[in-house]
Amino acid sequence: MDPPIRRRIVVAIDSLVAGDAAGVVRLQGTAADYRLRVGGWRVIFRRDSDKLIILVVRILPRGRAYAR
To answer: Pairing with 22, which of 12, 29, 42, 43 sits 20 to 30 Å away (CA)?
Structure first.
């Protein structure tokens, strides 16, 4: 992953942690997975609101992000 893309993803995750939920969508077919769009990349994560935890499951380009 290129350093500029990596920085954009880190900034997006930091804003997610700070409470900005822009660009977050719950994935269909799963009860716990969410998607955060960062340009052509997708951050798939789970969040536990009770414990205030965000677990990043994977970070992949858009075309490969949804294949299991």
So the answer is: 29
Would residue 30 count as lying in a domain? yes
Token code pair at residue 22: 């822009």
* Overall number of domains in the chain: 1
Whether 36 maps to a domain, the answer reads yes
Judge whether 27 and 33 are in contact, CB under 8 Å. yes
Terminus-to-terminus CA distance in the chain, angstroms? 20
pLDDT in tens, 2-40: 999 999 999 999 998 888 777 788 888 777 889 999 989
Cα 9 from Cα 26, distance rounded (Å): 18
**Distance, CA of 7 to CA of 63 (rounded, Å):** 21
